[in-house]
Amino acid sequence: MSKTVLTVDDSASIRSAIAFALQPKGYKVIQAEDGRAGLAALKANAVDMVITDLNMPNMNGIEMIRAVRSDRTLDGVPIVLLTTESQKEKMLEGKQAGAAGWIVKPFDEQKICAVVSKMIG
Amino acid sequence: MSMDSLKATFFAECEDLLDALSEGLAAMSDGTADPETVNAIFRAVHSIKGSGGAFGLEDLVSFAHIYENVLDQIRAETLDVTPAVMKTVLRASDVLAALVEEAHAETGQQPEAMAAVKAELTALSSVGGASSESGLEDAFSFEALPFEAIELSDLGDLGDAGELTGDARYQITFKPERALYENSHDPVILFMALADLGDVVVECDTDALPVLADIDPAESYLSWTVTVSGDVSREEIGAVFEFVEGLCTLEIALEETETLPPVGDAVEPDGAVDAPITAAGPSEPAGKARQSAPQSKRPTLRVDPDRVDRLINTVGELIINQAVISQKVVASGIAQNSDLMADLDDYGFLARDIQEGVMAIRAQPVKPLFQRMARIAREAGDATGKDVNFVMEGEMTEIDKSLVERLTDPMTHLVRNAVDHGLETGDERRAAGKSSQGQLCLSAEHRSGHVMITVRDDGRGLNREKILAKAIERGLVAKDAKLSEAEIDNLLFAPGFSTAETVTNLSGRGVGMDVVLTEIQSMGGRIAISSEPGKGSEFSISLPLTLAVLDGMVVTVAGQTLVLPLSCIIETIRPRTGDIRPLGPNGHVLSIRGAFVPVVSLGAILGLDNSCVDPESSVLVHIQSGGANPVAVSVDDISDQRQVVMKSLEANYGAIPGVSAATILGDGKIALIVDPDAVSKMAIEADETPITFELEI
Questions:
Q1: What pTM, to 2 d.p., does this model score?
Q2: Among all residues of chain B, which has the CA nearest to that of A116?
Q3: I need a labelling partner for B2 at 20 to 30 A (CA). Which of B95, B484, B528, B624 fits?
Q4: 3-state helix, strand, coil in chain B (%, to 5)
Q5: pLDDT score of B440
Q6: Confidence of residue B170 (pLDDT cuts 50, 70, 90)
Q7: B601 φ, ψ to 5°?
Q8: pLDDT beyond 60 at B154
């Protein structure tokens, strides 16, 4: 049974890059373009892990994490933030909101795969 | 999904971001920027960096990084935006755009200005760098710094030295906090990761576990002691626990190993036992207000242009179908004022509404194109040392997206030319009594079904004597030719013509104005020059609003129905006796307002009818297209004027000289669309051949 990773990012190329990195490793990747869509996708699919951007329209990454953590049907899913080194305070905020980890942009395939296997094996 | 389509998405995204960047920067230099503008600029550069990293574009990422630092300081108001700073920031956006282009073209080259601008940015970031905190951040994050690389390799050497002494053994005490579980971490996965590093012994401490009745299922009661032995470094172990820092009490201690060297090599500078890691990650003050920008981006839809093209095509067919039905209904004898006819009219209006709507999907403002030209003008100004004031007018004018893309190259050429050849240097301008700053104005406007784009400078104007002399020297015109001003100006578009005495590295990049003309004509457009010595020149490009639909005049020639593009038609004439004068054995010319225009039979040119029709009994259509000379084509009759949907002949059948495409008319008949440019060229060739023969005899 392959594991499902949800990538939430308003940049289609980032989403595709993540899918491109993870699919060959046997992960199923679904995509959402903002926090709101991400939340909907989480409810509609059995998701094993979430990789989310911070800065997105409609609902940003932190807000989405808070929403997930306060929803009893979803709160167990590990969520990893895509951050940048210039946003360390954001990273902290994310952690306080309930993010499990972070991937620092710019990222590469290995980094993504390493983090995903670190979180869900 | 392939890597290629992945990259295509990335570059499309970059284009949008670069547009947003130049838009923001334009507002900044106008002084109309608000804090959100600066945020938007920062975000654009930031996103390009973020995505660029995913594609391993190191130059792009490292440049964007320094750029971002400077923008960050502007955002935090630790750096004042002086004109000098603004200039550097603008130049940096040019370099960034160039880097994206290079990455797209995969040339592997670095933009020329990159090193210089990078140095300027670095200088700026250290000037404004004020807060030591951001300086620290740079030192930690900017991998491209050479010092950093040396330190890293030194660390590596240390590690190697450690390895030489044999396997290490670490004892790890790990006590998760409640938050660790709340953030959905699983200790088992951490232990499994440790097991990948070496031999692992895990002991669980259950002492803190209360009696069952008191257990809070969300609380953390367990702690573990893990011993890892093997060829492993402290960094590797630390990395396993990276994400749980701050969510647990963690101690990593190096135990003695059998082969430990006797001297204090193994004594870590910070003691054998690390301080418990309780501070969460970096120690940057969390409360510092680095606002996340409010999201003002409108949601947009990214659609494959092919789909829109298919839709446009289908809507075109729908309109034709409506026309066919109308004609059939009329032919069936139903009264014009019947309900059915009214409904049919409604059907027609609705179809046209849909068509306009679909066209609007493809329409986009010329603003991004103009902004790109502003960049070109700036670059050109820098390269030639000329001070250029770039002005845009009507930049919100919308044109078909495919036209925007295809206009980039010709416009670039025109703008470079205007700066390089058109505008004078500051000294020359002052001597001529002008302000030392040259004006370059790009404007766009809709004009009766066309869009007019002009590139206007207030420079020295065209030097017609020089142009004529050069054309004679190049053998483009006869020595004793008498040419009108407009004809001389049009020589610029002749293949192989270049006015620059020496090819500058700016405009002289291989393509000439003839390429500009060809490109504009291939879009169904026209280009015209007007110039006044000492006052400046203006190049006006007139383009159809879309490539898919054409306003045409339906004519009949030798029993065939043809369509002439309305854009090329100057007038239609039913000649009076005396208007047509014979020239040569078969030729005729039309005398019109004192000028003579060659008369050609459209039927003969297209090979439909070789019999010589008396031009006086036919209808003449006076056409001129692009740089070609005007001709009067004779047709049997003019039957209609209508919008037609162009269908490529080349894609479905093959290229026919003199015919650009085909269309389906209201009655279901297929009509060929005449290529006026080709027809006038063919007419001139056909005309010249017999004369040459006569001379040879």
A1: 0.47
A2: B189
A3: B95
A4: 45, 20, 30
A5: 93
A6: confident
A7: -85, 120
A8: no
CATH architecture of residue range(s) B1-134: Up-down Bundle (1.20)
Residue B30's contacts (CB-CB under 8 Å, 6 or more residues apart) are: none
Domain B366-544 sits in CATH at 3.30.565.10
Closest to B9 (Cβ–Cβ): which among A12, A101, A105?
A: A12
CB–CB of B498/B466 below 8 Å? no
Whole-angstrom CA distances from B16 to B20, B184, B321, B449 are: 6, 37, 38, 28
Q: Tell me the count of A-B CB pairs closer than 8 A.
A: 126
Q: At what angle do helices A12-22 and B3-30 cross, to 10 degrees?
A: 150
Tokens 């547009």 belong to residue: B19
Q: What are phi and psi of B595, to 5 degrees?
A: -110, 160
CA B457 to each of CA B168, B427, B435, B542: distance values in angstroms, whole numbers, following the listed order: 74, 17, 13, 18
Using CB atoms within 10 A of its CB, is residue B172 exposed (0-12), middle (13-18) or buried (19+)?
buried
Query: Is the Cβ of A119 closer than 8 Å to some Cβ of chain B?
Result: yes
Is the pLDDT score of B267 beyond 90?
A: no
CB contact under 8 A, B242 and A101: yes
What confidence tier does B291 reach under pLDDT thresholds 50, 70, 90?
A: very low
Q: Is the pLDDT of residue B590 over 60?
A: yes
A40 — contact with chain B (CB < 8 Å)?
no
What is the chain A residue with the closest CA to B240? Answer: A118
Flag whether the ipTM exceeds 0.85.
Answer: no
**Residue B111 three-state SS:** coil
Show the domains of chain A with their CATH numbers: 4-120 (3.40.50.2300)
Q: How do the domains of chain B map onto residue ranges?
A: 1-134, 135-297, 305-364, 366-544, 549-685
Q: Considering only the beta carbons, identify the residue of B3, B61, B290 that sits closest to A89.
A: B290
Task: In whole angstroms, give the CA distance from residue A28 to residue B99.
Answer: 34
Asked if the Cβ–Cβ distance from A13 to B54 is below 8 Å, we say yes
pLDDT at res. B504? 47
Nearest C-alpha of chain A: how many angstroms from B284? Answer: 7
Residue A89 in contact with partner chain B when CB distance is under 8 A: yes
- The CATH superfamily assigned to B549-685 is CheA-289, Domain 4 (2.40.50.180)
Q: Do A92 and B61 touch (CB under 8 A)?
A: no
Strand order in the sheet with B580-583: B569-573, B619-623, B631-635, B595-601, B587-592, B580-583
**Chain B within 8 Å of A114 (Cβ-Cβ)?**
no
